[in-house]
Amino acid sequence: MLRLTEIKLPLHHQDESAELKAAILSKLAIDESNLVSYTVFKRGIDARKKTDIQLIYTLDVEVQDEAHLLRRFAKDPHVNLAPDTRYKFVTQAPSHLKSRPIVVGLGPCGLFAGLILAQMGFKPIILERGKAVRERTKDTFGFWRGQALNPESNVQYGEGGAGTFSDGKLYSQVKDPKHYGRKVLHEFVTAGAPEEILYVSKPHIGTYKLVSMVEKMRANIIALGGEIRFSSRVDQLHINEGQLTGVTLNNGEVLSCQHLVLAVGHSARDTFHMLYDAGVYIEAKPFSVGFRIEHEQSMVDACRWGPNAGNAILGAADYKLVHHCKNGRTVYSFCMCPGGTVVAAASETGGVVTNGMSQYSRHERNANSAIVVGIHPEQDYPGHPLAGIELQRALEQAAFELGGKDYRAPAQLIGDFLKGESSAELGDVKPSYTPGITLTDLTSLLPEFATAAIREAIPAFEQQIRGFAKADGLLTAVETRTSSPICIKRGIDFQSINVKGLYPAGEGAGYAGGILSAAIDGIRVAEALALDMQKGANID
Ligand code: FAD
């Protein structure tokens, strides 16, 4: 199979398949009888010239005389042999297992660790503190409508993990030489995701599709001999002479186990404390804090797509912004949700946390993203590996107070924030956050350096997206769960550096940031664990 890159079609083409076929024949200078088939591997968008937007394709092409063409195009960087991206299992479990691996957490990391282990025949037991996704949806949407927060069933906890109610963006910057990302996307498509996620350059799924996909993947794991237990929180680890021997659950049940994937996400603060008390080696890690910013999506579309705003292929536009500030801090946009809503993402009573989500259609009126400032343990929360958690919690509790102590989020118009004046009245941008916002002054919510950095960055971002600093755009607070505040150190064997059999994984352990990278990490860790079980004394 040949891989052709940089094949271009104008946005306004007539017939994609006919025009791509013609482009292939012209690029390779072959006639139609030589072309067997082709598939689109990736489709990107080049919108640098807004009046002449181009679609940029990577195509996998089957031809009659591949060897000859490879020789002919040996010096052309855009004609190559397509890499084999099919997933290959590293091992298979024998039929008689002495023990089963445990996976803790059913977010993307635990889901893929569990799925791969099940597909290899290791019959994992998956423990998830939250509820099955439908029941969890009721609790989460209930909270957004003003019902009480359930600290064990919310945006952060439950089947599907933290990204279930999200924009479902499925791209990542992690290095992926073994093409695990393809495996993840293929499994998602098998579970009902739109096929286009396999080829568009910035795939997303949206909330409602994710819910039913997660259910299908659960059924698949169970059909393969895996077991999934909800409302099962791991409250204690048993460690004997540096080897994991078992866990205690919240109902007091003890499960013995020598191989455990710990994929608890970045919000499992009680679990982090439990691990620290049990002696698991943990380090503090940098993360970011800030606000959600909301604008009208039409403003972003007009800026990114110009006269092509509204085109169905382009969809709702996104942005990615970075500004290095005079005070040495960096402010950046994060988890941008085109055509989406700001959501209440708290998991602790008495705290307000913001995040964002969209539906697949991305048809909501507003664009939102986190505008956050990077912070570092040595400088901003020194002294204890878990000090970052305390900082997050303090900010979330301060936001709760400022919002009126009923889970409304404190918010301020951008113009007022830049002037340092409290907001009293909304402008054109209507807030999407539920259960609601309280207009106020956010100046003193974040540390002074963070407020100063964001004040400097917003006008700088205006240079890239006209309207970004518009006075009636909205800031909603507080954004604290951008990534894990800790790293549970693991060695090259993927096991904790001081507890054998414990495989820290995913975002909570500090090895991923986002759905795709967490899922990829789950696969990596599952493979390492399976190989270790295979070679060890755990198998007859
Ligand atoms: P998690 O998804 O956090 O899963 C951890 C699981 O472990 C949870 O289900 C939790 O209940 C469970 N758990 C915790 N402690 C225990 C315990 N002691 N015992 C048993 N179970 C436990 N990323 C993207 O790439 N694209 C997006 O569009 C996107 N949008 C987001 C929107 C929102 C609202 C949020 C909150 C996050 C979003 N993210 C997005 C981030 C993404 O969700 C995370 O990066 C990803 O879910 C991390 O996966 P994980 O499996 O490592 O952890």
Automatic annotation (TrEMBL):
<protein>
    <recommendedName>
        <fullName>FAD-dependent protein C-terminal domain-containing protein</fullName>
    </recommendedName>
</protein>
<dbReference type="Pfam" id="PF21688">
    <property type="entry name" value="FAD-depend_C"/>
</dbReference>
<dbReference type="InterPro" id="IPR028348">
    <property type="entry name" value="FAD-binding_protein"/>
</dbReference>
<feature type="domain" description="FAD-dependent protein C-terminal">
    <location>
        <begin position="286"/>
        <end position="482"/>
    </location>
</feature>
<dbReference type="InterPro" id="IPR036188">
    <property type="entry name" value="FAD/NAD-bd_sf"/>
</dbReference>
<dbReference type="InterPro" id="IPR049516">
    <property type="entry name" value="FAD-depend_C"/>
</dbReference>
